[in-house]
Amino acid sequence: MPILLASSATEIGPDQVRFIAYMACIVAALAGGYLARRLGLARPTWARPVMSAAIIGCDAPIAGLAVWHLTIRAGIWKVPVVGGMVAVLMCLVGLAVARARRMGPADAAVFGLQSGLGNVGYTLGGSLSFALWGLQGLAVEQMYCLAWPFFAFLFCFPVARHYGGRAAGEEAGESGLHYAGRILLRSLTDLRSLPLYTVAAGLALNLRGVAPPAAIQRWHIIDILMVVGIWTQFGSVGMTVVARRLPAFWKKAMGTAALKFLVSPALTLVLGFALGMSGMPLEVCLLLAAMPSALYSVLIANLFHLNRDLANATFILTHAVCLGGVAVVAAAWRFGFLPLG
What we know:
Na+/H+ antiporter like fold
């Protein structure tokens, strides 16, 4: 039922409070990491190992546990298919644009990957879906993210490793097929690819009907891991931000923003209609397709020695645009100018 334009219908509920709390953690972690580096309490070189530890210690269990708890409904398979296809296609579009603009390998990889890697997880897209559509919206968001570990670790990691090697002047020295196989094998055996295996394990347990332990929800294990993950990963990003370098990359960052906020939703709409999607599942997919660049795009830039200044500039710009839009819509809704439902 649409929300009426009345003050009683615009009261902030627990889902909205949770979203606000997560956003506050993100801003505080970014600012804290930046200030810690400026004050000499942290070093940029710490970011890489901290990011790796967060992927292994937080993202891996969150991915597995979320999929294990997921209620898989008939026809919902279209959601991860659309999510995965849009992510890969947008990366390829971004890489093609980067090549047309003759960017160097370290810039091209960041531009391409950030065009497809969106903040669709618990750090933004999931919280927004929860706030707008409740548990059903969160369930659809989790299905959208089901293909994400495979996309990130079987596509993005090899691409980043390849471009990082080119930027360092490394030569393949072998046939294209052998080179691609070697790069993929290195990604599969990288400990930071652990979320790929935990999500597969969670899906297997889910499909076999194995019930998750009640203690996971009783002790708020996922919530704790999410908060720790937000603080460690966004704090690490803050450590690597050098404000004076960012203006040089705003033009490229605006190019990525245009792809993410215009091309990505349009492509999602086309694919969604082609698969016969409608209603809330399509709406959630459209929301997630328009999310800003993912935190993982910054992590990947740091892990594989790509242009982290470009990654930081794009990450900050796209989030500023997105959160600014969310703030305007939320204010209009809160004061009764905009019906949502």
